[in-house]
Amino acid sequence: MVAQPLTLPRLAGDRADLHSRLAAGLTLPFERDGHVGEIRLSLAEQPPADEPISYWRCDSGILALSSPSPVLGLLSDCPLLPVGATQAEQAWYWTLYNQSLAASVSDLVGQIYPHPAPDSAEMPLAAWLTVSWNGIRARSRLQATASCWRALLERPGWRPVYRSLLHSLSFAVPLILADTVLTPAMLHQLRPGDVIVPTAPYFSPDGQGSILLASWRLQGAMQLTGPAPYHFVIADMETCSMNAPFNEMPARQTDAEDISDGVTNENASMPTDSSTANRLPPLPVTFNIRCGQIAITLPALQRLTRGAILTLRDVTPGEAWLCHGDMPLAKGDLIDIEGKLGLQITQMLSTPDAAHDQESDV
What we know:
By secondary structure, the protein is α+β, with helices and mostly antiparallel strands. It contains 10 helices and 20 strands.
């Protein structure tokens, strides 16, 4: 059997971004003759080769429309150009047409005129252009190059389309209080009574802190008084990249001697011999300190704002878990260490020895 190389279609990064924006949908409101209208863009499949199109020039570049008259007629107070008009009449007409464009439409396209077919080999990107005004609706396929689309979508006024979501769609994310870095040897020595001082705390002992939810970094405070359920009240929020670090703190400790300061215990160090003296230093691993989950529905996430209240689930005030990913390794009590949040281990749930025995059995 001869393996054939896989040939994948290529897509430039800017075109991928345009695909995503158009697939989500965009709207732009306008007002004409006392009535509110709307321009809506949505991604369309490439047109058939025999679809009739006409070309138009605007300030952003060259556009191609499959059904220009209905959509253009709804954007301006000027009536449609009569069939059979001469070239001189057309020049006069389009000057009047552009002067009568709705203000927000004029800001979007500038001026629009008929244009001959361009000599370009670039594959255009197609979208559905839907114009609604005063109870009338018209649609045309719009094609343009990536540079023209970028110029159009950079204009102010566009609004993303937020489609309604089912209220039953809900999800939960872990409530992470802090991150801590431990070496395998330190984790092996961890016993009840040991105290972990987190490398990167996200909350203070009084419940003030930040959480990362979807593309939002939320600042606020936990409310843990009274009976459950408990809550997190949002005081401020900012958009952040999904690839950004959770919080902007000084560089985390990675040196083995510095990491050792993060755990205090009375266990002796593991014995070493000459065969281990020249080995590489232990690889540090990041663990989470968690205390439950944040439960939220997708519609609520869509409407998230300052002052909103998030519901916390599976929270026991004063208790937390040391986790690696979604696996809990230890349970403990939250403590105040000179104004910093710490965790004192009360119970080991999964020990390195148990994990090693399971691997040996396999």
